[in-house]
Amino acid sequence: MNPMTLYWIIFLGIFFTVFFIDLYVTDHRKGEISVKIALRWTATWISIALLFGASLFFFFPQNPGSTENTAHVMGVKFIAGYLTEYSLSVDNLFVFIMIFSMMAVAPHNQPKLLKMGIILSIILRVLFILLGMGLVERFQWIIYIFGVILIWTAYKMAFQDTEDSVDPKNNILYKAASKIYPVDPDINSTKFFTKHNGKRFITTNVLVLLVIGSTDVLFAVDSIPAIIGVIKEGATDVLTFEEENFLAITSNVFAVMGLISLFFALKGIMGMFRFLKHGVSFILFFIGAKMLLTAIPAVGRFFSSHSWVSLAVIIGTLAFSILLSMLISEKKENVELHKEIDDLSEKQ
User: Fold this and answer.
1) Among the four residues 92, 130, 188, 239, which has the most C-beta atoms within 10 Å?
2) Pick from 204, 181, 202: nearest CA to 193
3) pLDDT 10s digit of each residue in the chain, 348 long?
4) Calpha distance 244→74 (Å, rounded)
5) What is the domain extent for residue 84?
6) 3-state SS assignment for residue 7
């Protein structure tokens, strides 16, 4: 069997197994999942992704005529892409938590909306990856546009207030839906549509899903240039187009896999990731700057023959941002904000 086909089969088998286990655990456990249990499941899914990357590093066969060890390049780029996209996914979950809090979503409705948001995120990412990789393969100069997009995204992430960017009242889809249909005031309803006196209403769940969906689109647009910058740059003489697509899709999907468990963990340990947004911002800036600087032949050759450099920068930045979050105490206003979110959750 072709090695690429075999790895696709392995990947799909792992993904569907993990995804349905994650769904089963969150659906059938009595009571809310504790932070400790959620962290255990999250660590399990991360370990599986890293083992998959290790299998690529050690066992993927060498491409005839390639200038580097194909397996090593595949493994390094998968892990670098996975960590980049996972950190972006964590930031995405922070936004989900904020949306649920701002829109007063009942706790029993959160897992269902989260699952739908994650499924939508996977679909959008795969579609955008195929489109983006195809464009870069056909028009090499587009990679410089992606580099500029990443640097602009890094700037926005570092200096823009997340709460302002996800305010439902400013969301176009939210405004349109609430004008077309009357909104059922019952925030505890598990349905998406209800009828009262023969008149159809939409529930808060519909509005939340629309806000999450539009947020997924924005995150997909931001994440695709990032994964292309990690996978595509410096690999054109080592990996085939099919292998690059495989790495881009699998690292992205593995990053989304297991987010249901991570959601319950983050609700209890948000303080550990207060500086993650700044770390991710620096990573995006680094990838974007690298994409632009590779227009200089010497820089392009350096990153092509030293693919581990990007991985080292990504791991070091993530570790430093988390360590900084643990060492530096929260500001008073952040403590009060988290207390307000916790109080709101308890009232629901």
Assistant:
1) 92
2) 202
3) 788 889 999 999 988 887 777 777 666 555 566 777 778 888 888 899 999 999 988 888 877 666 567 778 888 889 988 988 888 877 777 777 777 877 778 777 877 888 888 888 888 888 888 888 888 778 777 777 877 887 887 787 777 665 555 666 677 777 787 778 788 777 777 788 888 777 888 888 888 888 888 777 777 777 778 888 888 765 455 778 888 889 989 988 888 877 777 777 776 666 666 777 787 788 778 777 877 876 777 766 676 666 667 778 877 887 888 788 777 755 544 554 455 445 545 544
4) 9
5) 3-347
6) helix
